[in-house]
Design goal:
484 residues, alpha+beta, Pdz3 Domain, 2-enoyl-CoA Hydratase, Chain A, domain 1, 16 helices, 21% strand
């Protein structure tokens, strides 16, 4: 079995006569193992020597993504493919030592248990959240979703702590989680992943926003790690012309394949802006690269991650397996989406991808891995006061108390009187910015507080709209789409 695994990996290397060369190289490995097992002071465990040493060490010379799975890891991989996502159906704000409920979806375990916006979860299954580090808190929340959880809740305006039990259910989280229009005619939608139905969901969302009547669309793919390539094809086909090239797949042992828009496609015609950042990867980069190369969208934000490889998992004997990189994705202009893979040493990349490429109209775009935006727009800046207000959760807590005694509608505005109340509230919690600091941050504080109050008092979507109005990347996209 070990010989089988090693032989397959050796054959994956680029050798002129792979069978003969692999046999000779394999004998060297076996000779080293036999000598070590006979002469080493401590006994040599063959599973450790091969599973953790020889095989992973060899794969690291290929690229960072080729991986060997021992029996336990391979079993986990197969289980993950079958796993279902469970949850409680609530949206929460997670801060160091604090979890505050923003929304409990109707009909979900959270809503059935009685959770409300503004509630603060103090303990889960006996673990007091205030004593946990942020990473521990995130881990606890993940583990709690796997079985019934007992929680202790503090509700603003209620001196008595509430005890609730939540039983997780299978949750279907939509990959398009934000959508609305700016000024009624510029659509905005955010796709957080590319699942099997994402292409269809994006089309349905566009139709709800106005369809072909829209004067423009902002497609937010920031922090989207990718997913199903078929969904990327469906999404790109919503905007590209029939038979246009979406991407090409090339590999040493894989036949070159071109993927194009269906010949009977009927695309939207309104202008598009795509937003990306350093966490935009894989299928998201396929969509972005295709729209950019065909001059169908302007791309704004930060350079994307650069993950454009095709991997195949090969089952081996005795319940082991190996994942190997067999090909790469290329945009229509010929750019490789994958950043240069670095096998062996970091100083010697295995592939050189830098270069200048041209879009359909002749615009120059740079290769080298990832998608380079047409215009780099940095994310919002932060500073000491913003960090303190966000990390402490003070604005969320104040908003929770405010909605308990006030009726909030979508046209709500933060008045100077409300800001004075907030200032007193912060002072009681020893957050006392100076006069100049307060005045210089007044607009930001007013917008953030409005966001929190609308989130808790109306909906998460209402708060999201306010947040995006502050977002410099979204604001730049609106400028580009509304420019005459």
């Amino acid at each position: 079995m070990l010989l089988h695994a090693l032989l397959l990996c050796f054959l994956a290397a680029d050798n002129p006569d792979p069978v003969d060369k692999a046999a000779a190289d394999l004998k060297k490995v076996i000779d080293v193992f036999v000598t070590a097992s006979e002469q080493e002071a401590d006994p040599v465990d063959p599973n450790v020597a091969f599973y953790q040493g020889a095989i992973p060490g060899m794969l690291r010379t290929l690229d960072p993504h080729s991986t060997f799975f021992d029996p336990d890891q391979f079993a986990q991989l197969k289980q993950m493919e079958k796993s279902e996502q469970k949850g409680f159906g609530s949206i929460v704000s997670v801060l160091p030592g604090r979890v505050i409920v923003l929304q409990a979806m109707p009909g979900t375990p959270s809503a059935k248990a009685g959770l409300s916006p503004g509630d603060e979860i103090l303990a889960i299954n006996g673990y007091v959240l205030a004593r946990l580090e942020f990473e521990q808190l995130v881990q606890l929340l993940g583990e709690a979703r796997q079985k019934p959880a007992s929680i202790l809740v503090r509700r603003p305006g209620n001196a008595k702590l509430l005890e609730m039990t939540l039983t997780p259910e299978i949750m279907q989280s939509p990959s398009v989680d934000r959508s609305f229009t700016f000024d009624g005619d510029i659509g905005y939608l955010r796709a957080t992943s590319f699942d099997d139905n994402t292409g269809k969901l994006i089309q349905e969302t566009i139709e709800k926003l106005g369809g072909e009547k829209l004067k423009g669309l902002i497609l937010d793919l920031r922090n989207n790690p990718g997913g199903a390539v078929e969904a990327a094809v469906e999404t790109a086909s919503l905007f590209l012309q029939p038979d246009q090239l979406i991407f090409t797949v090339k590999g040493r042992t894989k036949k070159t394949e071109e993927v194009r828009v269906a010949k009977d496609a009927v695309p939207y015609k309104f202008p598009v802006a795509v937003l990306i950042n350093a966490k935009t990867a894989s299928a998201s980069e396929i969509v972005t690269g295709a729209l950019q190369d065909h001059d169908r969208a302007i791309v704004l934000g930060e350079p994307s991650y650069g993950k454009g490889l095709v991997q195949s998992v090969y089952p081996l004997s005795h319940d082991t397996g190996v994942a190997l990189t067999v090909a790469f994705y290329y945009t229509p202009s010929g750019r490789s989406i994958q950043h240069p893979l670095q096998g062996g040493t970091l100083e010697k990349p295995t592939r050189v991808l830098n270069g200048i490429y041209k879009t359909d109209s002749g615009r120059l775009v740079r290769g080298g891995g990832g998608i380079q935006p047409d215009e780099v727009v940095q994310p919002p800046e932060t500073d000491r006061l913003k960090m303190v207000l966000d990390a402490s959760g003070s604005l969320t807590v104040f908003a929770g108390e405010y909605i308990r005694s006030h009726q909030v509608k979508e046209n709500f505005e933060v008045t100077p009187e409300i800001l004075d109340e907030l200032k007193t509230f912060l002072s009681e919690r020893r957050i006392q910015p100076g006069v100049n600091e307060w005045l210089s941050h007044r607009d930001w504080i007013q917008s953030r507080l409005k966001q929190e109050i609308l989130t808790l008092g109306v909906s998460v979507a209402a708060g999201d709209r306010i947040e995006l109005q502050r977002d410099p990347v979204v604001r730049e996209a609106l400028k580009k789409l509304t420019r005459p």
